[in-house]
């Protein structure tokens, strides 16, 4: 998970473009697709491999940011006669368009992930597929991997099926619209059930010790003919939607472990030192964390609309470091095989338009349900996938981290010398005059250095902006 999400809107882009272009060049980010790849994508868009099963009678809907057009998932939610629920979850079938060993396939392995810059994205697949023929756009029949997951009245999974099917979304919804419909009681049952099922799954997550981080998005907002940084707190609908994806990823992991071949998303338990550091940050930000209360319970109680809680949630993402992918074959299940934040076995399988590994996980699950051996092209690629995904994730994290630094530096560059109110949220053990501060306004978390004495961890401090250079992506404060 990235440390901070960030979104830049129209008027604020101009001062940032040069620095962001330089970052793309420095990281050798592939912008344009080779002609051979584009030709294959165009041909595949016109003639995908279509499934035999037709599920276009189900009125699916998607929930995404309003401007998104690369739609990986669509859902339909219903009650079952025994008091439980049925979740239909359609995932874009990228394998219906990408032929193993083709130029299009090779380019996907080179890119690994869609990369998100503040001023746009660099897609994993050509947009004729990712935002066109393979995307689950409303009103369009699309090949998909169709999951059917039955839950009992408490939201526990009781049956799982996945197969190829033709689906058609009826509506493209966004989080704010879904939240509004549910809050006002105007949502039809398939949408209204998102809250019901999401809450049940959230309760089960808490019972098993899992945690979902509702990390705020950092936004640039225009204000009095200038612009500044602020946090946008996620809505409850964001979390309910995420629970459907988590449910599917856990179901997929169970299918693969039962079949004996698969790839899991794993995360070791955070070391005591990392948790202790987070406790210091909580103290610094005024987040109540009694010693008898678990990390997961503190995170669940945090209010992302509260700026200090928002900063704490950003710091919580440090405990997700060390996540990776673990391959197993021939029934040799790795140990441990659990994702510590999910508190269960889990895999990535719901975003194949934007993440390479999901295409392979989906194929493994379809084969497992059918009782077939995985396709040879899947087995042949498995061993290399963890390293490919690790390289791609490092690049994506660098893009995200450097982009945030560039944006912060660009927005603060005219304010060098100004004094701000801040809280000291971290102090280096071996360099106690160096640490990290969180500003309430603007929403900046940055390095502080240059003082002669130990920084007061957990205390309010007046700080002076010493440096803000978008060219070097550097923001530095000093005690005032």
Give the gist of this structure.
This protein has 480 residues and is of the alpha+beta class. It is 36% helix and 24% strand.
Looking at this protein, list some descriptive labels:
single chain; 24% strand; 480 residues; 5-stranded mixed β-sheet; globular; 5-stranded mixed barrel; 17 strands; alpha+beta; 13 helices; 36% helix
Q: How would you characterize this protein structure?
A:
The chain has 480 residues and is of the alpha+beta class. It has 13 helices and 17 strands. A five-stranded mixed sheet has the order 2-8-7-4-3. Strands 13-14-15-17-16 form a five-stranded mixed beta barrel. A hairpin with a 7-residue loop joins strand 13 and strand 14. It is globular and about 70 Å long. The mean pLDDT is 90.
DSSP strand count: 17
Shape: globular
Uncertain regions spanning at least 5 consecutive residues: none
**Annotation field: number of helices:** 13
Query: How are helices and strands ordered from N to C?
Result: EHHEEEHEEHEEHHEEHEHHHEHHHEEEEE
Estimate the strand proportion.
15-25%
N-end to C-end Cα span? 34 Å
Q: Mean of residue pLDDT?
A: 90
Strand order of the largest sheet: 2-8-7-4-3
Gyration radius, in Å: 23 Å
Going by helix content, strand content and strand pairing, the class is alpha+beta
What kind of sheet is the major sheet? 5 strands, mixed
Share of helix among residues? 25-40%
């Amino acid at each position: 998970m990235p440390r901070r999400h960030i979104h830049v809107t129209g008027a604020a882009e101009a001062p940032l473009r040069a620095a962001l272009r330089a970052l793309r060049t420095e990281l050798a980010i592939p912008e344009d697709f080779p002609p051979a790849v584009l030709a294959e994508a165009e041909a595949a868009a016109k003639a995908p491999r279509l499934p035999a099963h037709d599920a276009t009678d189900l009125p699916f809907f998607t929930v995404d940011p309003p401007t998104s057009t690369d739609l990986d998932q669509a859902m339909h939610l219903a009650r079952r006669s025994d008091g439980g629920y049925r979740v239909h979850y359609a995932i874009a079938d990228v394998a219906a368009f990408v032929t193993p060993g083709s130029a299009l396939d090779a380019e996907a392995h080179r890119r690994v992930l869609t990369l998100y810059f503040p001023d746009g994205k660099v897609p994993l697949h050509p947009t004729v597929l990712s935002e066109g023929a393979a995307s689950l756009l409303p009103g369009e029949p699309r090949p998909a991997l169709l999951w059917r997951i039955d839950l009992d009245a408490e939201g526990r999974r009781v049956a799982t099926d996945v197969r190829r099917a033709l689906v058609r979304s009826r509506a493209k919804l966004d989080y704010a619209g879904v939240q509004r419909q549910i809050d006002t009681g105007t949502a039809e049952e398939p949408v209204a059930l998102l809250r019901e099922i999401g809450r049940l799954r959230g309760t089960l997550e808490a019972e098993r010790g899992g945690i979902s981080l509702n990390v705020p998005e950092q936004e640039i907002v225009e204000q009095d003919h200038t612009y500044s940084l602020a946090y946008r707190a996620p809505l409850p609908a964001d979390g309910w939607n995420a629970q459907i994806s988590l449910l599917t990823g856990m179901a997929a992991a169970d299918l693969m472990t039962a079949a004996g071949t698969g790839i899991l998303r794993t995360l070791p338990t955070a070391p005591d030192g990392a948790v202790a550091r987070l406790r210091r940050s909580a103290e610094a930000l005024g987040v109540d964390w009694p010693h008898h209360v678990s990390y997961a319970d503190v995170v669940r109680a945090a209010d992302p609309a509260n700026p200090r809680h928002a900063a704490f949630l950003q710091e919580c993402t440090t405990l997700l470091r060390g996540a990776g992918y673990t391959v197993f074959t021939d029934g040799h299940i790795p140990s441990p095989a659990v994702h510590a934040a999910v508190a269960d076995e889990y895999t990535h399988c719901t975003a194949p338009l934007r993440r390479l590994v999901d295409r392979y996980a989906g194929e493994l699950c379809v084969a497992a349900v059918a009782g077939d051996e995985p396709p040879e092209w899947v087995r042949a690629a498995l061993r290399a996938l963890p390293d490919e995904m690790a390289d791609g994730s490092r690049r994506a994290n660098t893009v995200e981290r450097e982009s945030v630094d560039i944006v912060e530096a660009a927005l603060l560059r005219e304010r060098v010398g100004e004094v701000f109110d801040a809280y000291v949220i971290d102090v280096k053990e071996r360099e106690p005059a160096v640490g990290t501060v969180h500003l309430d306004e603007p929403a900046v978390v940055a390095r502080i250095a240059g003082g002669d004495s130990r920084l007061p961890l957990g205390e309010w401090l007046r700080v002076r902006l010493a440096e803000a250079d978008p060219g070097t992506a550097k923001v530095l404060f000093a005690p005032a």
